[in-house]
Specification:
The chain is mainly α. Helix content is about 30%, strand content about 5%. It has two domains: about 130 residues, no CATH class; about 30 residues, no CATH class. Strand 1 and strand 2 form a beta hairpin.
């Protein structure tokens, strides 16, 4: 049995349109088998029938923002997958708490939701890598400096932007920001972390 209390997700494969990573296969009324995407509205209900006994629809493309409030969201009119799951994971006074009281199944649901969000973000970056605004990339020169002289070993390179959390550019940008703060105000005297409970 694992001794650590951590939860991890492993996303296997490249993020091309041809290879679908979800492992949910349904049988059509006609008798054929069909693999469904994580963008399918009933994806989570099929994955977690205990948490969604009535087959509630989850995230799907085209969910519009509610215009009841006065908050203007910007130029987008549709809810993103990240915004949808951030909304669903909150505890509300007048909603059922079946999902939140799911214990370890709820934790697995969160990991699957995170994996779906990251998979779609990476698929978007791969599909639109040439169109993303970025600085000049010197990938081949960097590879030659490292000693990779075989062109076949380089493969297809996808540059993750600094906006992608956890990418190399994201880490370098945060490091440079931290060093700029230290240069301006001096080294830190204390390092403080905060733990937040949404019920407080």
């Amino acid at each position: 049995m694992p001794a650590a209390s951590e939860i991890a997700a492993l996303i296997v494969g490249d993020f091309s349109e041809e290879i679908k990573s979800p492992d949910i296969i349904i049988q059509d009324k006609g008798g054929g088998l069909r693999r469904i995407s994580n963008l399918y509205a009933n994806y989570m209900a099929l994955q977690y029938p205990v948490l969604f006994p009535y087959g509630d629809q989850g995230f799907k493309i085209g969910i519009k923002y509610s215009r009841l409030g006065t908050l203007r969201v910007g130029v987008r009119d549709e809810v993103t997958m990240l915004e949808y799951y951030a909304y669903r994971l909150q505890q509300r006074r007048y909603e059922a708490t079946t999902l939140i009281r799911g214990d370890r199944l709820f934790q697995q649901y969160i990991v699957d939701a995170f994996a779906s969000i990251e998979e779609n973000r990476l698929r978007f970056i791969v599909k639109n890598n040439k169109n993303l605004r970025s600085k000049v990339y010197k990938g081949l020169q960097d590879a030659l400096r490292k000693g990779d002289v075989d062109g076949a070993g380089l493969g297809k390179k996808v540059i993750l932007p600094a906006s992608f959390t956890g990418s190399k550019r994201y880490m370098v940008q945060n490091y440079q920001d931290a060093m700029a703060i230290c240069r301006s105000y001096g080294p830190p005297d204390m390092f403080i972390t905060f733990t937040s409970n949404p019920k407080w």
